[in-house]
Records
---
Amino acid sequence: MSEKDIIMQTELETPVESTAEEVVEEITEPVQEEKVVEPLTDWSKIDEMERQLELSKVTIRKKSRIGMRFRRIFGNTVGQVILTVLSILWVVPLFYLIVQSFRKEPGAWSPTFFPQEWTLDNYKRLFTETEFPRWYGNTLLIAVCSCLITTLFVLAVAYAFSRVKFKARKPIMNVMLILGMFPGFMSMTAVYFLLKILLPDNYQSHLSLIIVYSAGAAMSYYVAKGFFDTVPKSLDEAARIDGASRFRTFFKVILPLSKSIIIYTILISFVAPWCDYIFVSYIMAGVPDIGMYTVSLGMYKWLEREMIQQYFTTFCAAAVIVATPITILFMFLQKYYVQGVTGGAVKG
């Protein structure tokens, strides 16, 4: 073997021997054992931690309940204070009006809130020395007639829009709804001249007022229509199968089930002419016979500069008498009024 071959063999054998030694050393090295976490066996500490956690939950619940209770009490208190203030602002003028109707001292101004002398002479004078009884009767006649016609119109139109499907139904409903948003006094001039054309010899009369209050009543159909939409249509279908016409179905089947909306419509229809002053003052202006006035127009005359000092306490007595029937109606029919409003407040 040559020297060259011996050198090459030495170079080849040397790394093999070193590699084998390193492998043996790695194999013979002691294996490090992994640290094993022993489980916690102190049960007293675990119980203490659970107890603290439970106490913290209870504390959080108590704080949340206290916060909710405080917010509820604070909100109720603020609401009651606001309602009390508003009630005082509403009740004090009414109470002053009632008190002044029993005042014996003449004149429109009094240095004290309560009368120095109490009397019923203002009520006696109201029915013996003024035209108030005639005004009251005129207003009652106009209000009752307008109420009957308006109620019939509103309920009939609402039922027709609720049940009858025709081509121009939606456009007509939209037009009537938009027109009903405008205040009625915007049409005073047109109404006045129409009355002069239709009733040339009697346009300043109670009949004219009844026509004015009843003619545009159908535009207030939407609340009644919403109520009729809640009445099952199966009732109409059953009545039609039995041979009833739409007219008979409306009066014999639907109306007996619509007591609340009928009372609501009657109240609204009665209050409007009973309290109206704008149309009365425009249509009845210049009437020579003051006995043709309604209570609103006649009582307003007492507040003019020439008459207020003489008739102010009488005006207060008349205001109490005029407000009495409306108050009684709303007190006894409030339940039906609310039912009519809520029953008609649905999407039609």
Note: The domain at 130-344 is CATH 1.10.3720.10 (MetI-like fold).
---
Amino acid sequence: MELIDARNNSLTAMPSNERLELYFLETGGLRNMELRQLATFLSVARHGSVTEAARRMFVSQPTVSLQIAALEKELGVLLFERQSRGVALTEAGRILMRYASDILTLADQAAQAMGRYIVDIAGTVRVAASTVPADYVLPRALAEFAKLHPAAVVELSRASSGKVAEQVRSYDVEIGFVGSLGDADELEAVPMMEDEIIIIAPPFGEPGDWTDPIGLDQVLASPILCRLAGSGTQKTFDDALRAVGADPERINVRARLESPEAMKAAVAHGAGIAAVSALVAAPAIADGSVRGFRVEGLKMKRKFYMIHHKRKVLSPAAEAFRQHIIDTLVEKVVNN
């Protein structure tokens, strides 16, 4: 998209993102738009469909189309590209989406503050977490939070650490939990509890005679089950190998699995060994279906992090949930 300003032709030489942002600021394009237009825009953006947005907002499809058209006219840019199935955000639409959620959240907070002296903690908190926090760390915290704030609903989705960070950056969720940070420039990260990655092996065959800790040569000589790309657990294991001069690209990979539960089951049936969280491994080690080992010379401890976007204004319910996690989970150490 190209924006031309007769007063300043140098705008066209700027990167497109900067050009659009400067355009909005200089023209005052954001001053006159209505909150209902922003809410409509956000609904269409999230669902990728005018029809679905209309259904969820309990209005007609023409009403949604008129709201979007009025907003585009006000701003002087196209916010969506019409496709055969639904719509997709343009570059201008993606920029506006970064702020639209914050604007509506602030407006809602102002209305609540003016409407009553005591603001109830209510509403939906959108949360995403990598596998280990989602399945082994957060359930108890969610139960405790539900008892404290029964009017609040936490929607928890599960993805790899990399995808969780992407969801936080794109404002798809308010709070994320990850096992590795990666590029965290846009994120506010709070270190939580500590975890350790260990090797699990079947209790029969050659691993049945291993003693803890095992040597790196035993790991490298064994068939290994790995997690898919983006896994914080896999990154911790790969980084530990690199730290001692071993190439994770040259290990004997037997399979790549998405779920640590699938890895435990495969290991228990003799498919190979695997690097998993001590939290994940503990029940299987206790019932004897797998054996657990540390590896001499490999440092495989990591922290879980709670993240949110630095520019994101959290809803009261999300802020209460964030504080609850800080009070109950931050800096607690897992010793398994």
Note: The domain at 9-115 is CATH 1.10.10.10 (Arc Repressor Mutant, subunit A).
---
Amino acid sequence: MTGCAIFLAFLGYCSKVAPKSFSGGATHVTNISARKDRPLDPRSNWAALSQAERDAAYDNNAAVKDSAALIAERNEASKALRASRKSYLDVAYGDRERTMIDIYPAADSAAPCLVFLHGGYWQRNSRDVFAMLVEGVAAHGWSVAIPGYSLAPEASLTEIVAEISQALDWLAEHGASYGISGPIVLSGWSAGAHLVAMALDHPRVTAGLAISGVYDLAPIRDTGLNDALKLADQEVETLSPLRLPVVHKRLDIVYGADELPALIFDSIHLHETRVAANAPGKLFPIEGADHFSILNELRRPDGALVDIARKLVNQ
């Protein structure tokens, strides 16, 4: 199957199963395994794809034609928010340069806290350029905390995963001193969604919200992304959520209907694996959302992802 044929099949799939998002909520999908019209995961024919096709299967920037403009707007909005909102910035939770956390406390220290993990395939971006997401849940009285983490190739993925647990340990011990003592919803986007799945079992986490994630690392090792990651065989097996025992804690999984097929199928497969194990959580496709625009649903106070997050703590 060519890359074009894969994409066309994927579009047909999305038009059949992705419900519309709407202001203040979203509709979840059920009984996905029972559907007769599911196309093959493009990676089922992975060996036949060229290197360029494999790279394209995970290239979100190239897949979204206005990604550069969306990223620039996100960065500017985040810069403005960091300068204007009450916060504790650049608080160290570890000893490395990027192991810092930005905290935006609510008026009520017992309010829920959204801990957001940024994306960038574990090798790009930083916590500060996602500050614009604070305004979504903060409008409903939530706190927000955004940890940074080390990036490849300076850090291995094993080290990055450990740093997220370290950040949560720090919040468990010191969060109350910064106005965070309520339940934590651990959320993340793209690579951050993978980190959410890996840290879901942390005792400080009440529930998880994984957005547009990658949950099987094996294909990543066959793309240019691995030049920095240098994934070892053991890391593929022990750091791929789809290859690990299911964590029986609430995890809602979200993807944009206009995302790359590889990310959509990883989301579907992770949800199905959890359903088979009777683990709690829902799957939410967001119609019309691509890998970048989906974050608007977490940024807007009336966004679908804000509504999903609030329901995770029965708000």
Note: Residues 67-84 form the longest helix (18 residues).
---
Amino acid sequence: MKKFAYIIILALFVSACGSQTNKEKLKDLKKERNEIQKELSAINNKIGELEQTIKEKGEKLPSRNITHVRTKKTTYSPFRHYLKIQGEVTSDNNIAVPAESPGVVERIYVEEGDKVTKGQKLARLDASSLEKQMEELKKGYELAKTVYERRKRLWDKEIGSEIQYLQAKNEKERLEKQIESLKEQLNKKTITSPIGGTVDDVLLKEGEMAAAGRATFQVVKMTDMKIRGEISESYLNQVEKGNPVTVSPTHVSESFTSTIKTVGQVINQANRTYYVEVAIPKEIKNITPNMIMDLEVLNYKADSAISVPVNIIQKTNKRRFLFVTGEENGQKVAVKKWITIGKTYDKKAEIIEGLQDNENIIVAGYQNLSDGEKIIIE
């Protein structure tokens, strides 16, 4: 019981000390406030004296209660909206040349960076076994051809049997077909370029085994390149063939302009986009496949529109407004204008309703204005 009483007494003591401490803090704060008020009063008195001196010298001073603003006149001008996307340089003539037949690489005729023409030899695979077969077939064919010619001469003179003549003819023709088939196989042992262009990559070495269908060379035709990008389906039907595009290579300072070459008609189910292709003008150099490009694609234009800086537009109760200048009893005042905006781009907003040509919109000093408040235009 005594222990409980001691606890109560201790709590009351701590509370009293805390209360005393709070009172002292409050007293100090009031003292500091009074000192600041005295300083402020002295400053205001000094300002008043200075203003009086300025007025006595014939100068006019604006009221300190009037907000100073800057304005800009509205005008009709073209407004453009662009989509910012990224694209990759591609080429329909970026070809991975495959080996059509398996075999050991006997010789490589080109190096990376070499210019090649269509049909030019790139490499040759070992064809020794096929060449031996060809020699044997040619010997057999020469014999079959001789037998056929003799049988034919006899048959033309109605000597010998028709069966013997037909068998000789059939044997000769069979060997001719085999030779043609073997020639095709031999031709496949030589890898040639399907297009004229530049050898971008050599993917095999002499002595290696080349597999049928495996890529052996990468050949690129640098003059037939384009940029392929993807646009969200929400902008479907806003981008058309021929729309202007500003292209900025990510690693090159100089940008260039081009146009939309192709617009995809199918939505990609994986990312809900459709593709666009941008032509690369022939005079543009130093562009290579797989480069990344920043694209600004025109998707909206108004030839005559009023646009204002986005930052001066304010919002209340889901409605947007800005301030223009007006006049009341010979004094400039701020007038609140409710507006409807369209597209926004490059820190500017298109105004669809609420503003007319040649109005003075307030572009600086608008933050704390109220409708009808007096202003001074700087």
Note: Residues 67-79+303-377 form a domain with the conserved putative lor/sdh protein from methanococcus maripaludis s2 fold fold (CATH 2.40.420.20).
